[in-house]
Amino acid sequence: MSETNSAADVAAPHRYTAAMAADIEARWQDFWDAEGTYEAPNPTGDLADNPELAAKPKKFIMDMFPYPSGAGLHVGHPLGYIATDVFARHQRMTGHNVLHTLGFDAFGLPAEQYAVQTGTHPRLSTESNIENMTAQLRRLGLGHDKRRSFATIESEYYKWTQWIFLQIFNSWYDAEADRARPIAELIAQFESGERQAPDGRDWSALSATERADVLSGHRLAYASDAPVNWSPGLGTVLANEEVTADGRSERGNFPVFKAKLRQWNMRITAYADRLLNDLDGLDWPEAIKLQQRNWIGRSEGARVDFPVDGAGDITVFTTRQDTLFGATYMVLAPEHELVERIIPAAWPEGTHPVWTGGHASPAEAVTAYRKQAAAKSDVERQAEAKDKTGVFTGAYATNPVSGEQVPVFIADYVLMGYGTGAIMAVPAHDARDFAFARAFELPMRCVVKPSDDRGTDASTWEDAFASYEAKLVNSANDEISLDGLGVVDAKARITDWLKEHGVGEGTVNFRLRDWLFSRQRYWGEPFPIVYDEEGIAHPLPESMLPLELPEVDDYSPRTFDPDDADTKPETPLSRNADWVNVTLDLGDGAGPRKYRRETNTMPNWAGSCWYELRYLDPNNADKLVDPAIEQYWMGPREGQPTGGVDLYVGGAEHAVLHLLYARFWSKVLHDLGHISSAEPFHKLYNQGMIQAFVYRDSRGIAVPAAEVEERDGAYYHEGEKVSRVLGKMGKSLKNAVTPDEICGEYGADTLRLYEMAMGPLDVSRPWDTRAVVGQYRLLQRLWRNVVDEDSGEVTVVDTEPGEDTLRALHKAIDGVGGDMAGMRFNTAIAKVTELNNHLTKAGGPLPRSVAEPLVLLVAPLAPHIAEELWRRLGHTDSVVHQDFPVADPAYVIDETVTCVVQIKGKVRARLEISPSITDAELEALALADPAVVAALDGAGIRKVIVRAPKLVNIVPA
After folding, report:
1. Which of 510, 526, 558 is a domain's end point?
2. Residue 134 is inside which H or E element, if any?
3. Is residue 591 part of a domain?
4. CB 3.0-4.6 Å disulfide test: which of 109, 129, 680, 884 passes with 68?
5. pTM for the predicted model, two decimal places
6. 103-123, pLDDT tens digit by residue?
7. What is the rounded distance in angstroms from the CA atom of residue 755 to the CA atom of residue 757?
């Protein structure tokens, strides 16, 4: 018989059971909804009419956006939601106006894949999933302001996602002002002649297409033909952050290839320095800051131009410009746009046979090698493989400092994702260049003097010599010599020389690439862009927003053989010709014209880039957000110079995806004057993961964890021995436990307590259903301390508690309050348990002055039972907005402490003394103690060391 249906429950009709918990929890959840208990007032209207509320400090608390999965929740999902709820409840009780709500990030691939499989419209399955998830979350008693909840698939929401896209499209980054500005201001500069077109012509002399191309080179949102990550198996392109380290799609695990396609991009690189510098002012885990710093990847060096006859310059970025005299060849990434322009029709006379790869012409060699490289991931391309591969382009470039002609290769170890996609190779002083040079029999020149005895003839070396400490050699021409200089001085001198001669300059480079913003999918936000008959992109006017998704017959993008890189995307939207081809008057004076809509959709990250702002003002149909409301909840303030959400809780896996993208959007909106906060999230907290044991049979197939038996330290399923390993919890692993199961067996308050008591919030921990009963019993003891299990009557009395109880109570109040504020919920529960156990052992009815603070201590953690007990104690107002108890310092400090008295390091006495005793008082007491007097036996005293109130050490003469 289970704990919830024991004979004791029948004998005690008012015992706290799962059935009683279910009744209590459902009643109070209905009450909270009906009363609007968790509705947070905004500064416009509500606070203006309520001076007392207006005087409260605000607290904006958020969870990372959940995706409404068809599988529903397992007990691992609510960990962060319960934690933020506990924290929010404590903040309300300590005098804060708290905004805490939850919406749904509802666009994305899972719903679309389900639609492809079943023919069900993604909206229908998504809304069903939201309804199910909402019910599961409600059962947990989460104190969300439900008026502010929304889903990103609502047209009223994605209208503003599209509006933000247009703000970004209609902006450019002014490097001198270090901020975004409206594109209209840039156009005015071109029209006035303040700024010249790239080719020097007047703006009026450019065609409409040429002007559009110039502006596209400045816009913060732009379309371009560029190398992208193409996944034929998914039928879509992916951002760098969505590709795994082994070159496969994060979703679906399909191969990913490099392909050149026309796609929308966000110029996030313009904000690289600000994204990097503003990390310092954020209260984020250092590990997340480090990941962002590494992803942004700032490095200082120089830009150097290597001329190629008839094809312009190959520009490289290098952090070792001091070694420029040692550059004996160049390498371009296979995808580099210059490759087609520099390759000659035939191999130059005397071309080394190893350089050609056995091909009859440079074009044939380049085509074959590009196909080979496209099948490799970036990680594979950069791996320290023994054999280096590449092919000669047939072209030579000029080393600007030596005047030498150096061959230009393409090789897969050079990536377009870093620098300029081109390198100057200095094989004597770089390990990868050294290996490549050996493989292709290329010359090496020592320009950094080795510190060992290998000499300066690099052709005799077994490996490269890399050093930042050695002196430069063999680095001079008729105008400049670096010989004898250290690296730092040599860098400075050559950088100045490059700038003077117009062949380079000092610069900063970033690893960060522009954000690929197109997806070949149906279930995403349509771009508010149309193209005219010349192919020029035009933004839709705000009056035409939202641009809603049309109906289509087939939701799936065209997918291909996952290994076939020579394919191109075909989007579902392109199949609805009536939607794609339209006649519109855009209000630009051109009148009605024929246009073609953009048939890509935005990535699933778009809606989560700004959702914190919609929580503030969710029903505003006229503005993104009311400025006064945004300023109140998110504006800069003391300790938060860039503003943002006060607490943001979620997993660490979004360090360089959602978190970086959201920061970029906030900065653009801030620059354009739409919001006061330059950062979206001031404080970030990463919760750990609830794990579960995964059991697998001899085939490696997961078996239901609930059906596994343990015998003599081994595990069996249907008589067969199975393996056990701790891992993730999930439906596919057959180890998922739903919150509904635990709520049904013990109640939601028990589940809340157990998840918070399992360990520190930021540490992963294993789920153990058998241990849940411990928190259930805590609640039963709490109930018994207030309510008689036989009669159901409240048993508290109006008498004064004893000294021991007062001390236990106020120590608990002090400790629990500090733990709540610090999100140490596991230790807070331990302190509540200790207090409750003390009261249980003390026996007798509880004094009201103890029972009420006890209920208030429990209220943030177990709100349903606290609300019920608070009402039974005679209160008519909700426990949610009561003041959190305040500890009396007189009872927090121990009445006495034990002081150890040592003589020659041996304990001779223990004194019970006041914790506030002075050193002089303690010394006098110690020397007067009979045991100490006896131990000294008349000996003199050379020194007394006092560490009040815990230690006295006496050193005899």
Report:
1. 510
2. helix 122-139
3. no
4. 129
5. 0.86
6. 999 998 788 888 878 888 999
7. 6
